Predict the 3D structure of the following.
Amino acid sequence: MRSRQPDRSPHLCDGPTRREVLQWGTLGLTGLSLADVLRIRAQAADSSSYRVTPPETSVIFIWLPGGPPHMETFDMKPEAPADYRGEFRPISTTVPGLDICELLPQLASCAHQYNVVRSIAHKFADHGGGHKRFMTGRQPKTPTGFVNDAPAVGSIVSKMREHYQIGVPNYISGTNNGRHGVDVYSMGSAYLGPSYHPFIIPGHPNEADFEVPNLQLSERVADSIDDRQRLLKHLDNVQRQIDTSGAMAAMDQYGQQALDLLTSDKARTAFDLSQEPQEVRDRYGMHPWGQRALMARRLVEAGSSFVTMVMENPMKKGEAFPDGVLYNWDSHAVNGHIFNDAKYRLPILDRAVSALIEDIHARGLDKKVMVIVTGEFGRTPRISHQKGTKSGVTQPGRDHWPSAMSLLISGGGMRTGQVIGSTNSKGENPKDRPLTPNDLWATVYRHLGIDPELTFPDHSGRPMPILPFGEVIDELLPVS
């Protein structure tokens, strides 16, 4: 337990070049091949400092960018004044004393399988600062902008488990098309280097044109190389013709590992949702959010350590936005009508997340897998009214509020059916059990078997601890 601190190449004529062979594993936006990534990781790692034997544990991190309203979801205040409590009413759940929004009936029916934390807070009210503060467990150097100056937690996990080769990437992120840069949600790896960025999967898993990058050979490659054996032989030929010093031999070791991933039946199977029974897919919902949640379950089941799935835009491809519905969770009155938006997006979230939690427990994964659902902050307790940019009429909304937020957490072998912490009568600030994002991450690192006091050098060579402060949340410890 750690003390709390304040929240403050030559072209060969008879086939593709070696460079082209390695580029079949190119990692989307980073411009690095899988072979490059694996090689850089090995070169960067200290000879033994970070070699750990990881437990068979993992995290599914459901990210709700923009900031979900805590008083329309998990921390309702029906006795507060009308300009605070909002339009919706709480409903009872399977946990006595835990009431949640009436728009979340499926989550109400499985409340005994998760916990609600109501007392996390920080001080960064801008989206960029909030993302960086939450994703990294550090006080960002600047309060705006999404480029990390410290590694995201997923990148730390990727670094710590780089020697854990299980046939699927250790750090994966699913997002909408056009929103798949590492800096969109502050998922960057900062001074750890780009090889620890997430393996990003853009798009809707149910669309006909959906494709997981880098798991299929291009048509040119398929036409010119008949099978895996011939490709391996070609790599050997490249090495013999180009490398007489032996320097390339080490590089081709990582080319082999990259090829292993590209041709991995395990990876191909894990990403293939068509292998799920249709009733299971329907339970999650044939919506990008539901199918991403299902894919996350398949990926951690296959062994991936940290899977982030972004649930931002509630619309399917080609659908028009109904009146008042927003692109993300940023429910300012100028952006949209918070109550119309909630009526549209909360049932989708309800279905996807409840299915994920129930599935994790039904499949016996609730000790291995920890599920977290959160955004970067909450929303202002008092409702504001402004003229909408699109609607042209005055409508209700809530603004940024890092001083109070709620998150949902399940799995990890923890006791469930708990409400941890509380806010005051108007939902403004933590009242009991005040916590920070670092306390959550300390709990996550414990679940993953990672020592948060280990250090990595930043760009200037200074040793930086994985987590500068934070305490494990005792209520979320595994049940002995």
Residues 3-31, 45-53, 217-228, 244-254 have pLDDT under 50 and may be disordered. The chain is about 30% helix and 15% strand.
